Amino acid sequence: MTLRIFDTATRELRDFVPLQEGHASVYLCGATVQSIPHIGHVRSGVAFDILRNWLAAKGLDVAFVRNVTDIDDKILAKSAENNRPWWEWAATHERAFTRAYDLLGVTPPSIEPRATGHVPEMIAYIRRIIDNGLGYATEDGSVYCRTAQVPDYGFLSHQKLDELDQGEDAAPGKEDPRDFAMWKAAKPGEPGWETPWGFGRPGWHIECSAMSNKYLGGAFDIHAGGMDLQFPHHENEAAQAHAAGDAFANHWMHNGWVTMSGEKMSKSLGNVLSVPNVLTQVRPIELRWYLGSAHYRSMLEYSEKALQDAAAGFRKIEKFLDRAVELLGAEAVVAGAWRPAFEEALDDDLGVPTALAVIQDAVREGNAALDAGDTAAVQRIAGEVRAMMGVLGVDPLSDTWAGEDSKGRGQGIGAGASDEAIGALDVLVKAELERRATARAEKDWATADAVRDRLKDAGIAVADSADGATWSLG
Fold it and tell me: Which of 187, 192, 222, 437 has the smallest C-beta neighbourhood within 10 Å, fewest atoms?
């Protein structure tokens, strides 16, 4: 069966046929590193890691690009609120995202380009758009895209041009309120770069158009990201590419949100549901299992019960594999071939829920074989389970998860720690963080830095955000 993917642009399932035989090219919009990562942020990382694994499992050489937005309005605002240099703020939270991806076993991308490292490429790309008559500079040094003149504008978000609102402030020299900024003139005190049009910084959308072009070319297979990015971000990325004369993405994939009580995670909930905090409840492999268990296009309604139920379900599969190893030895329990029904499920727009049912059926059969002492069946089924779990990135016997304590609480605070120990440590560390926050508010930087350094020496990493500091064992 051919892999079929729901294309957001056409709103239909389409056969995935790579533009280059034997090769798949994927661009995923990564983090805007303005705050600590919560589970809503990393869901796309997990969802499209499964896509990447499946493309590779089907024999394709996958080029996977995931960008980092390390300068934008929110980063500048939050760093100023916290009296920190913008570059330090961005770098601190980029490291927090990298740690979160690593904890959840997300394969590092082929390359992870930063916006600030690709300003020359953005300038060159904007030049192409201006030369094609679809971009213009204003007196203050900003550059805009002539939205109304870009062919097929609105094809992705399915909105009418006359009804669009870019969410940008009015600006002098802007020809049409529907035009969007590709380059922004820097305000007093803001960072920027010298360009042919003046001193400024990138607009949000130009970075992805320029970086995908640099690493994947003018046409590539799949553009992926959260559903909230369809407009204006992805629509405007495509508009810039088309204005420059590039075909851009052949397929568009968008993942659903993590919700709570039916609402997208708010800023306050984002702190509560930060990856380090959630990992006090379950192990990283269990959190990955939970985030990847729903269909990527569906909303994932978070609750502690749902999280714990998912973790318990994962442990049943893990227990079967452990029993198989005890019976046969680790060297005999190796990944084999996945079941045809598993392949059919993933070929149908990455139908993970159906694929999980196939795994659970196999585990039931494997447990029955264990009880019956049928070693040949146990070995075959364990190999199937490992192969299928490996595609989903949650094979507990793989090198990725080697050394994970199956009874541990999670590496965000400490695998294997008891609830009492976790609670006691949390009280002590939070007291130190409160003292640090008071010192920072009073601009007593020496005391604030001393607290941070003392925690660091104790093996405790602190991540700052506009919502407060969180900690994890580093």
Answer: 187
User: Which region among 265-279, 311-325, 326-340, 388-402 has the lowest average model confidence (pLDDT)?
Assistant: 265-279
Q: Structure tokens of 2?
A: 């051919």
Q: For residues 57 and 63, what is the distance between their CA atoms, to the nearest angstrom?
A: 14
> CB–CB of 220/253 below 8 Å?
no
Q: What is the average pLDDT value for the chain, to the nearest integer?
A: 89
Structure confidence at residue 465 as a pLDDT band (50, 70, 90):
low
User: Does 208 carry a binding-site annotation?
Assistant: yes
- Residues 28, 65: contact at Cβ < 8 Å? yes
pLDDT at 421 over 70: no
> Per-residue b/e over 302-334, b at no fewer than 16 CB within 10 Å?
beeeebeebbebbbebbebbebbeebeeeeebe
Query: What is the C-alpha to C-alpha distance for residues 427 and 107, in angstroms, rounded to an integer?
Result: 34
Model-level pTM? 0.84
233 is in an annotated binding site: yes
Residue 251 CB neighbour total at 10 angstroms:
20
In the DSSP assignment, the letter for residue 466 is T
Sign, Cα dihedral of 423, 424, 429, 430: positive
Please, what sign has the CA dihedral across residues 114, 116, 121, 126?
Answer: positive
pLDDT at 58 > cutoff 90: yes
Question: Is 174 annotated as ligand-binding?
Answer: no
pLDDT of residue 413: 42
pLDDT of 358: 98
CB 135 within 8 A of CB 200: no
Question: Are 21 and 12 contacting, i.e. CB atoms less than 8 angstroms apart?
Answer: no
Whether 184 has a binding-site annotation, put simply, is no
Q: Give the side-chain half-sphere CA count within 13 A for 400.
A: 21
What one-character-per-residue DSSP string does 159-170 give?
--GGG-------
Nearest to 50 by CA among 294, 366, 320, 251: 294
Residue positions counted in the chain:
474
| Dihedral angle sign, alpha carbons of residues 214, 218, 222, 227 | positive
Is 304 labelled a binding residue? no
Cα–Cα distance for residue pair 392/469, rounded to 1 Å = 32
Q: What is the pLDDT of residue 271?
A: 55
Which sequence spans correspond to the domains of the chain? 4-259, 283-403, 419-473
Instruction: Classify residue 260 as exposed, middle or buried by CB count within 10 Å of its CB (0-12, 13-18, 19+).
Output: middle
Q: Check: CB of residue 137 under 8 Å from CB of residue 230.
A: no
Name the CATH superfamily housing domain 4-259. HUPs (3.40.50.620)
Residue 416: what pLDDT?
42
The Cα 106–Cα 125 span in angstroms is 31
